[in-house]
Specification:
alpha+beta, four-stranded antiparallel β-sheet, globular
Length: 289
Amino acid sequence: MGQQLGGQAVIEGVMMRGQSWAATAVRRDDGNIVTTVQRLWTPPAHLGFLRWPVVRGAVALVYSLSLGLRALNFSAGQFGGDEGQLTAKEVAATFLLAALLGVGLFIVLPTALMRWLGKGSNPVLLSLGEGLLRLAIFFLYVVSITFVKDVRRIFEYHGAEHKVVHAFEQQGLPLEAADVSGFSTLHPRCGTSFLLYVMVVSILLFAFLGWPSIYWRILSRLLLLPLVAGISYEWLRLAGRSKSVLLRLLAGPGLWLQKLTTREPDEDQIEVALAALREVVRREPEVRL
């Protein structure tokens, strides 16, 4: 196909994105599916360096977080009236709070714990231990949220998104829910796999930084986060396109982790994901097979 699709599960819905457009579809309490569509931002010609390999990954991470938050805001607004919609300032505050929580949980906490656990150890081993702690915290976090009922519902829509992308990549449109249900809920380009790649790349990269003071460790990890995201993004793109046996093996842990973040959807949920897909394809003829 001409380009790759991506997406994200939201509250009772799915956001699907192509190269130039993104569409979010949500099933309301009355059973109707409502959609919203937005044109995606692309770097202008004079900022062509933002499309460079690795650099584009860091840009894509920030933009995807912003786009995903807006999609979540739209979905929440379908159930809470005006009270469900966040203002621009509230969206920015939510984004900042999520970033601070992520930094605290996955950067500050593991390096602080390793400082306490590994006094006097080899700097490389300390860095590797910090990375393994970060990976363990990430895994425990994912496992813990699977017990939340509302999160499990979102994971079902996550599975619907993957099934629809698989079906479209192999069959194109038209598609009905019955045509999609037999496809896998796992996909090599999933954001869950991307997060795991971030963890692995950070372990390898940070191992070369030694073991300076805790303040410099935290600062260095924050400064190198765009590089980590960029490398992980290129790895994800390659894993999603390549037929190499080696790359399939390397993608295996990410697919395994998706078994925690996806659930088998019903046909109603698949219909919502299809509604989002059709809105994107309608505006991007080049997305057709």
